[in-house]
Design a protein that fits this description.
This protein has a single domain, classed as Lipocalin. It has one helix and eight strands. The termini are far apart.
Length: 141
């Protein structure tokens, strides 16, 4: 009996090596839908050198054709729309309303590369640029 088991051992090892061992990973969650939340920007005011924080309530609609953002405080965050492209950890927004010439805008636009986290309900988009931090906290509607 022991000789039969020893003879079968190489066959068992071969079969075990042929078994699929990598587990299919779920697709990353795509942040599609309507989200409502708060935008917060913290920056150093160039006129006073003081740390300043501004906020706005915003709504973001994301679909496979692009995004639309509306803000309740246009002086803080501009309404916008455009395209986006993301992977598991970063997302790049291209707001078609973002000015490309002239002085830097005084209000914020959802434009550029951001880190993000999404669990199917809570959606956070954030980035740090110099002394500025941009933080969007949403929940899915």
């Amino acid at each position: 009996m022991m000789k039969k088991l020893i003879c079968l051992l190489p066959l068992l090892i071969f079969i075990a090596g042929c078994v699929k061992t990598n587990i299919d990973q779920p697709e990353p969650l795509v942040p599609y839908g309507t989200f409502a939340g708060k935008f917060t920007r913290t920056y150093i005011d160039p006129a006073t050198s003081a740390k300043t924080t501004v906020t706005a309530n915003i709504q973001l609609v994301m679909s496979d054709t692009g995004f639309i953002l509306t803000s309740d405080a246009d002086a803080v965050h501009a309404n916008g729309m455009g395209d986006y492209l993301g992977n598991e950890t970063t997302i790049e927004f291209k707001d078609s309303n973002n000015p490309t010439t002239g002085p830097p805008p005084t209000k914020s636009y959802l434009n550029g590369v951001f880190n993000y986290a999404y669990d199917g309900y809570n959606f956070r988009i954030f980035k740090v640029s110099g002394d500025d931090t941009y933080d969007y906290l949403f929940t899915k509607k």
